[in-house]
Structures are given as structure tokens and as C-alpha cells.
Amino acid sequence: MHYAFFSIHALDPAEDARRLNAFLAANSMLSVERHFDADGANSFWSISVGVATESTSEAKSRGKRGVDYREILSWS
Predict the structure, then answer these.
(1) Of 16, 76, 10, 20, whose CA–CA distance to 48 is shortest?
(2) What pTM, to 2 d.p., does this model score?
């Protein structure tokens, strides 16, 4: 898993939200956390997105079908 971070300006969120939405649509998310930083005209949302890496996705699919230890352990 790796993380991506975004800031979305509260008074003009359109472009920042577009970038975030494009990223979310293109990736498999594991977690999303958000925090609002209130500072008048400089207020913004801070967003942290946990994204599945290829190995994380493989581990999830392997976990659904169980672990075949013959694949993992070598007896030679």
C-alpha cells in the first residue's frame, strides 16, 4: 500500500476535486481520511488516500482463495 495526499481549497474546490476524483477512479482505494483546516479564505480539506499496490491486490485475491503452502514452501 502507498499513500497519496491532496489539498482541496474550500472556496474554489472545482479543479482540486477534479484531480482527486480522477485519481480515485483510476486506483483501488484501501482507506480515505479527511480533515478540514479552517482558516478563513485559506480554508482547505486535507485528504489522505491509501492505495492498493499490485502486491497488495494480489495478496487480497490470494487471501480470498486461501493460501497454498505448496506454492510458498520449497521442499528441495
Answers:
(1) 20
(2) 0.65
